From TrEMBL:
Belongs to the CDP-alcohol phosphatidyltransferase class-I family. Pfam families: CDP-OH_P_transf. Keywords: Membrane, Transferase, Transmembrane, Transmembrane helix. The keyword Transferase applies. InterPro entries: CDP-OH_P_trans, CDP-OH_PTrfase_TM_dom, CDP_ALCOHOL_P_TRANSF_CS. It comes from the Bacteria. The keyword Transmembrane helix applies. This is CDP-alcohol phosphatidyltransferase. It comes from Salinicola endophyticus. The chain crosses the membrane at residues 16-40, 46-68, 80-99, 105-125, 137-156, 162-183, 195-212, 218-240.
Length: 252
């Protein structure tokens, strides 16, 4: 038999470990926040903002988790670690004065999250544990990370609010798919798309540094936005040409 008491018990144990992983992530957020308080006199509200962002991410993970509730796996644990760092950066956006005083530290934290972005995929491939859930988790976290970095630049008054277009472009694309289902077709793997995504994050991260002036930040983010238009335009052309073909699968 494929299913039975033993199988059910195993899945429950794996599901419990998933909850443990998410809880451990929340505990790590709390520890990092307390360390930032102790070392840099961070605003007291950081506990609420960073913790709230992480809880929102964890809730989304639980909502999208496969029905079998299997263990989260090492690759997804690394992605979850990225979520911890991103939640901390996101929580600090509410305090622009603090970010201005510690821009190098914020950029270093964001850089660590960016470096982990390559490690989770490597682990998934080399442990033969790649899943659609893991790919989706990684992709959604990348999109949110870009929004966070854009919002940080706006909070620092280095770039106008137009830069949020870079972060919100993908969400607009997903929303458009509600009206045009052919936009939900799974796209082929593209190294150009991945490169442009990394370029955007790296550009936004560099622009956080104090040595990058507002004028340079505007120029660099404008270039990142142009590359984003190129990437989306290329994908839209590919999708448009196949809009009448039956949808067999979707990433959404």
């Amino acid at each position: 038999m494929a299913d039975g008491p033993g199988r059910t018990s195993t899945l429950r144990r794996r599901g419990c470990w998933g909850w443990v992983d998410l809880g451990a992530g929340l505990a790590l957020v709390a520890l990092l926040v307390e360390w930032v308080h102790w070392a840099f006199s961070a605003p007291g509200g950081l506990r609420l903002t960073a913790g709230g962002v992480y809880v929102a991410i964890a809730t989304a993970v639980l909502w999208a988790w496969p029905a079998a509730r299997q263990g989260i796996g090492w690759a997804n644990r690394i992605t979850l670690l990225r979520a911890v760092f991103i939640a901390l950066v996101a929580g600090l956006i509410a305090y622009p004065a603090f970010i201005q005083r510690h821009a190098e530290g914020i950029a270093a934290l964001a850089l660590l999250a960016l470096l982990l972005d390559g490690i989770d995929g490597w682990v998934a491939r080399h442990t033969h544990s790649a899943t659609r859930f893991g790919a989706r988790f990684d992709m959604e976290l990348d999109a949110f990370f870009i929004v966070v970095l854009c919002a940080a630049l706006v909070a620092l008054d280095k770039v106008g609010s137009w830069v949020l277009v870079i972060g919100l472009a993908r969400y607009a694309f997903v929303g458009a798919g509600l009206y045009w289902p052919w936009l939900h077709r799974e796209l082929p793997v593209s190294y150009l798309r991945k490169t442009i995504c990394v370029w955007q994050v790296a550009t936004l991260l560099v622009c956080l540094l104090p040595l990058v002036t507002s004028s340079w930040a505007v120029a660099l983010t404008a270039l990142a936005a142009a590359l984003l238009v190129l990437s989306f335009g290329r994908d839209l052309v590919w999708l448009w040409r196949r809009r009448r073909a039956p949808l067999r699968d979707s990433v959404f």
